[in-house]
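Hi Y.,

Following your request, here is the sequence exactly as I used it, all 92 residues.
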Amino acid sequence: MPEFVVYKTYGNIFVVTGNSKYDFIEFNAPEEIEYFKSLDWIVDYNKVKDLSETKILTLGQKIAEEKNSIANNFNAMTEEEKRKEYEYGYSM
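Below is the corresponding structure, written out as tokens. Let me know if you'd prefer a different format.
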């Protein structure tokens, strides 16, 4: 995690309570925006905002199938293969 995320998130005490549950941390510097845009696990709102409920559910099903496939492949590995994947990043 980049230093700017840690600083903005934990540098200030950010305790979520009933009164602050809708408070947000704003990341607006160009390098912050590029970092978050590069993450493939964050949904791009502009790509999904106009999808129908059916298309969103279909997309969610595809994501669940991919997640299950990755988990099944990982679970089928030997302990040595799992250790290497943990150390060097998942590559399947």
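DSSP finds five helices and no strands in the chain.

Thanks again,
Q.
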